[in-house]
Amino acid sequence: AARPVMWALARVSSPLPRASSARTFAPAHARVPSRPSPSTAAGPRDDMATDKWESMWRAGGETLQPGQEFDASRCEPSLVALLETGTLPTGRAVVPGCGRGYAVEALCSRERDVLGLEVSETAKREAEAYLASSDKPETKQHAKIALDDFFAHEPAAKYDLAFDSTFLCAIEPSRRKEWASNYASLIRPGGELVSNVFPIGDFEGGPPFALSPKIVADLLIPVGFEAVSLTETPETQWARGRKEYLYRFRRT
Questions:
Q1: What CA–CA distance (Å, rounded) separates 82 from 246?
Q2: CB-CB contact of 101 with 143 (8 Å)
Q3: Rounded to the nearest 5°, which phi and psi values hold at 142?
Q4: Residue from 236, 246, 245 nearest 13 by CA
């Protein structure tokens, strides 16, 4: 079966090299020993969603390659730039629909344990392979992938940070309020959700389904988030060749 043609809306630019491990992340202090690492135990999953995304990753029996469909071949440059400011919360982080784990690798540090969630077994394997090939020292201990459904995910403790990119746009619009309320349950007060708002437009159908900063804010603010910043991503930082915004929210 062919992969959904709507992802042609999210065509990527030419792949760039993996970010160097020398990039500047949040200042490194001693790790808090009482903070638990993310669990990798698989929780209950939506079988329809699992089948849908597994077929995306293994269309025609061939594994989706870097640069195809939603895969941007690297972490979103806008997130990398934000990480370099050292202003994001440390502690525990989650990346739903993490794909190959580019953002999981970028976010992890000696101060931040990151868990990527995927419902596709192929995606999980690809992400684990990508992380295993990383030359970033923190990846081995502070980055993990779990086969788990975001909507059924039950962590041992709330998260300090979440990153959402090509995940909200990939789910049915009828589940958007559930998406927002689930983040409100998963993130501790004072924790943050960073949303890469993409794709921008007023087209119909999907995935990917069209988004806008207003759509994201109207979902999150009513369930207990406040806007921290909204930045239109410079064209030089577009991850997939189209306009995007980076929207930062804090759980109140």
A1: 9
A2: yes
A3: -120, 10
A4: 236
- Residues 6 or more apart whose Cβ sits within 8 Å of residue 156: 36, 39
Q: Are strands 112-118 and 143-147 parallel, antiparallel or unpaired?
A: parallel
Residue 187, SS3 per DSSP: strand
3-class DSSP assignment, residue 105: helix
Q: Is the pLDDT of residue 25 over 90?
A: no
**Per-residue pLDDT tens for 74-93?**
999 999 999 999 999 999 99
What are the structure tokens assigned to 62, written together? 């061939």
DSSP state, 170? Answer: G
Identity (one letter) of the amino acid at 137?
Answer: P
Please state whether the peptide bond connecting residue 199 to the residue before it is cis, i.e. omega within 30 degrees of 0.
yes
- Judging by DSSP bridges, how do beta strands 245-251 and 225-232 pair with one another? antiparallel
**pTM of this structure:** 0.83
Bridge partners, 165 (sequence order)? 196
